[in-house]
Specification:
This protein is an alpha+beta fold and 416 residues long. The protein folds into 3 domains: 14-67, SH3 Domains (SH3 type barrels, Roll), CATH 2.30.30; 84-196, 3-Layer(aba) Sandwich (Rossmann fold), CATH 3.40.50; 230-414, Hnrnp arginine n-methyltransferase1. It is 22% helix and 35% strand. The chain has helices spanning 2-11, 75-78, 84-90, 94-102, 104-116, 135-143, 158-167, 207-218, 240-246, 262-270, and strands at 14-18, 37-42, 48-53, 56-61, 65-67, 125-129, 148-153, 174-178, 190-195, 219-226, 229-237, 274-277, 289-295, 306-314, 319-332, 342-345, 357-368, 373-382, 390-399, 406-414. Strands 11, 12, 13, 15, 16 and 17 form a 6-stranded antiparallel beta sheet that branches. It binds ligand GJV. It is found in: Cytoplasm; Nucleus. It catalyses: L-arginyl-[protein] + 2 S-adenosyl-L-methionine = N(omega),N(omega)-dimethyl-L-arginyl-[protein] + 2 S-adenosyl-L-homocysteine + 2 H(+). It is an enzyme of class 2 (transferase). This is Protein arginine N-methyltransferase 2.
Length: 416
């Protein structure tokens, strides 16, 4: 009796409230607006639930919903949409700083920017936003003669940064300031705003928002942003090893047919993008294409809500189209007229960085041939609730000489 009752309760649909609007991007998804009450029938995965709204049923993103009746003071509504405790907590330990500092391409590029602009940096005021252990600030102090470097850091690493600055004789020039850039008070505006803010797929973590707010408040007219521009690059690719490891594996392990697990495997391994993918240039099926470009002087925080781009690829060799791989580049303009721009490229034809690349797997691999065209668009939609997260939506068409054209759409939450 007792057990039956509990089971009944578990199976009963639960009522949820939409925290924000959602527009369906696939035929199985359900659109809703803020305040809509949805009946959740099945929490099929952590991210996508099967729900009903006014008699219509479909998948909805779990993170956009709150259990009805969960009011202020409830755990979920108290949660910080920026997850700052967790975010800055993780930058308070050495693990991530070690990873970033060990990334020579990244760190040497920032050093190169300072070196190649050292003459023009003389007597300039610099802000290093999110300075971490202070490496960029100390490059400035050691390799150039700025009048002041404000090194801003919100995590508890900042206590050690002060000590490092002193230890390396940079305390005359570098002023370490503890706190979020958003709450910063400075006695003056700055000539240069330098930051290493880029996340996976460029925008993930959305630290760029802090940089743009600091720009609008603290960069003097005519001041310089480093990086000055950024781009997200995309390429259609093969990912045979990953596909074999996670999907083909189930075909005949130990002589047994495990294919009934393949839908589960797809859900578990291919729903979200794979960070930390290092693509072999040989696996790129065409030349890459910049799909989103940010001008760091003009982009506005509100633009980050939804960034759209288009692509048109020409397949250069026959192969299996398993998915798309994305990475970013950033450019640092010279302080001198006609001076060379420095670029950090995290793509497959450059030295690997700690960001590596990001792989988006299609649900089914598609054979493509030389001369096929793959065109379509990409949308990066920032999560309206969880501000450091976003969903990447890809829509593609394949025009082939041999087959009919095929189209597909897939949304990838990163992570909520
Ligand atoms: N204010 C101050 N420090 C910050 C802020 C902020 N708003 N946001 C991030 N940081 N490239 N994805 C700090 C953070 O604590 C860490 O030390 C560093 O900036 C992140 C740098 C690398 N992350 C990235």
């Amino acid at each position: 009796m007792q057990t039956e009752k509990v089971e009944e309760e578990e199976d009963a649909p639960e009522e949820y409230v939409a925290l924000c609007d959602f527009t369906a991007s696939g035929s199985e998804q359900l659109s809703f607006i803020t305040g809509d009450k949805l009946l959740v029938h099945n929490k099929s995965s952590a991210d996508w639930w099967w729900a009903e709204l006014q008699g219509v049923i479909g998948y909805v993103p779990a993170s956009y919903l709150r259990l009805d009746g969960a009011e202020e003071g409830d755990d979920t509504s108290l949660e910080d949409p920026w997850q700052d405790d967790e975010y800055f907590g993780s930058y308070g330990t050495l693990r991530l700083h070690l990873e970033m500092l060990s990334d020579r391409s990244r760190t040497e590029t920032y050093r190169q920017v300072i070196v190649s602009n050292s003459a023009s940096l003389r007597d300039k005021v610099v802000m290093d936003l999110g300075c971490g252990t202070g490496i960029i600030s100390m490059f400035c102090a050691q390799l150039a003669k700025p009048s002041m470097v404000y090194a801003v850091e919100a995590s508890s690493m900042v206590e050690h940064t002060r000590q490092l600055v002193k230890q390396n004789g940079c305390e005359e020039v570098v002023t370490v300031l503890q706190g979020r850039a958003e709450e910063l008070e400075l006695p003056e505006q700055v000539d240069i705003l330098v930051s290493e803010w880029m996340g996976n797929c460029l925008l993930f973590e959305f630290m760029v928002e802090s940089v743009l707010l600091a720009r609008d408040r603290w960069l003097r007219d005519g001041g310089v942003m480093w990086p000055s521009s950024a781009a997200l690059a995309l390429v259609p690719c093969q990912a045979d090893n990953y596909y074999t490891e996670k999907m083909a594996f189930w075909e005949r392990p130990y002589g047994l047919d495990f294919t009934p697990l393949q839908p589960l495997a797809q859900q578990e391994f291919f729903t979200k993008p794979k960070f930390s993918h290092l693509i072999d240039p040989e696996d790129c099926l065409s030349a890459p294409c910049d799909v989103i470009c940010l001008n760091m002087y003009t982009v506005q925080v509100r633009d980050l809500e939804e960034m759209k781009g288009e692509f048109q690829f020409c397949v250069e060799k026959p192969g299996i189209f398993h998915g798309f791989t994305a990475w970013f580049t950033v450019q640092f303009e010279s302080l001198e007229m006609g001076g060379a721009t420095v670029e950090l490229n995290t793509g497959p034809n450059s030295d690997p960085t700690h960001w590596k690349q990001t792989l988006f797997m299609l649900d089914r691999p598609i054979q493509v041939y030389t001369g096929d065209s793959i065109h379509g668009n990409i949308v990066l939609r920032r999560n309206p609730v969880w501000r450091r997260h976003m969903t990447v939506m890809l829509h593609w068409n394949i025009n082939s000489n041999t087959d009919d054209c095929q189209a597909g759409t897939k949304s990838f939450p990163m992570w909520r």
